[in-house]
């Protein structure tokens, strides 16, 4: 689509854009005509993302710590300096430190909360201070926000906080014409989830619980984000758009083999 897409003329920021979902989001927004500042934790990673995106001067690569206010403010300023405006922002940067409740260390708790919750807060606040009417902010949450997985305690809590942040910010920013929404990916095949997706027994266990029959792709999430930052979503705010192939909808029980084997489940007989 390039500069003729539905985001033509608009400019924004995508954090954590060096790989996986973040890179997929950046690619889709560029395809829809946007101009972007893409951030990563190192300049090398940001430059690598910009090279992969291959969008010339429509991309600015920037090293940025998502949990450091000065870095977030610098990303906002970089967008306004390079493109003369700031219309959209996507808080995608995230980390996980797997551990159960009784085993979570203070260091791991702080690290996850800093990147996964403080990061979206800082980006939302810094962008809201300069965005005008029509501004779009999207926070990448997770199905873990409402369907926690054991062993990911800090991540579960942080992502629940991201949904709460989106809803609270949506109320306060709506009078300014700024929408704030979250997307909730299920299990998406990326480098971060390779240990799950590539392991036969774990992969089969998950696929049995995903009605769509496959793992997500970065493009699946990117499409949802592109919608939420477009004019098509102008009257949607405070929403958590789940992108999980139906995994968290419920259970599709198998048909009983015979009447003798049927049982009463959930009030049905």
Structural commentary:
- A seven-stranded parallel sheet has the order 3-2-1-4-5-6-7, with helices on both faces.
- It has 269 residues and is an alpha/beta fold.
- It is built from eight helices and seven strands.
- The chain starts with 10 loop residues before the first strand and ends in a 26-residue tail after the last strand.
- The protein has one domain: 3-Layer(aba) Sandwich (Rossmann fold), CATH 3.40.50.
- The chain has helices spanning 20-31, 43-53, 69-83, 106-128, 153-173, 194-197, 200-207, 218-228, and strands at residues 11-14, 35-40, 59-63, 88-91, 136-140, 179-185, 240-243.
- Helices cover 39% and strands 13% of the residues.
- Helix 5 (153-173) links the parallel strand 5 (136-140) and strand 6 (179-185).
- It is globular.
Helix count? 8
Enumerate the spans where pLDDT stays under 50 for 5 or more consecutive residues. Answer: none
CATH superfamily: NAD(P)-binding Rossmann-like Domain
The first-level CATH class name: Alpha Beta
**In percent, how helical is the residue content?**
25-40%
- What is the mean predicted local confidence, pLDDT? 93
What name does CATH use for the topology? Rossmann fold
Strand order of the biggest β-sheet: 3-2-1-4-5-6-7
Number of domains: 1
Query: Radius of gyration from the CA trace?
Result: 20 Å
β-strand amount: 5-15%
Structural class given helices, strands, pairing? Answer: alpha/beta
Overall strand count: 7
Quote the distance from N terminus to C terminus. Answer: 53 Å
């Amino acid at each position: 689509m390039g500069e003729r897409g539905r985001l033509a003329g608009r400019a924004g920021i995508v954090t954590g854009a060096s790989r996986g979902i973040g890179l997929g989001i950046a690619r889709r927004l560029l395809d829809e005509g946007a101009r972007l500042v893409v951030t990563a934790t190192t300049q090398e990673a940001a430059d690598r993302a910009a090279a992969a995106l291959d969008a010339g001067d429509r991309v600015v690569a920037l090293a940025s710590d998502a949990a450091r206010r000065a870095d977030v403010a610098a990303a906002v300023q970089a967008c306004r300096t390079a493109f003369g405006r700031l219309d959209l922002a996507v808080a995608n940067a995230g980390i996980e430190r797997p551990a159960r409740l009784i085993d979570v260390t203070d260091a791991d708790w702080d690290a996850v909360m800093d990147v996964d919750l403080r990061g979206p807060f800082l980006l939302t606040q810094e962008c809201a201070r300069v965005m005008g009417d029509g501004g779009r902010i999207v926070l990448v949450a997770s199905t873990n926000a409402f369907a926690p997985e054991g062993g990911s305690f800090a991540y579960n809590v942080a992502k629940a906080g991201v949904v709460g942040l989106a809803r609270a910010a949506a109320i306060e920013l709506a009078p300014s014409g700024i929408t704030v929404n979250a997307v909730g990916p299920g299990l998406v095949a990326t480098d971060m989830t390779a240990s799950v997706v590539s392991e036969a027994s774990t992969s089969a266990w998950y696929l049995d619980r995903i009605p769509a029959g496959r793992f997500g792709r970065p493009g699946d999430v990117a499409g949802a984000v592109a919608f939420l930052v477009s004019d098509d979503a102008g009257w949607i705010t405070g929403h958590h758009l789940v992108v999980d192939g139906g995994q968290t909808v419920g259970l599709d029980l198998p048909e009983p083999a015979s009447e003798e084997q049927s049982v009463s489940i959930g009030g049905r007989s």
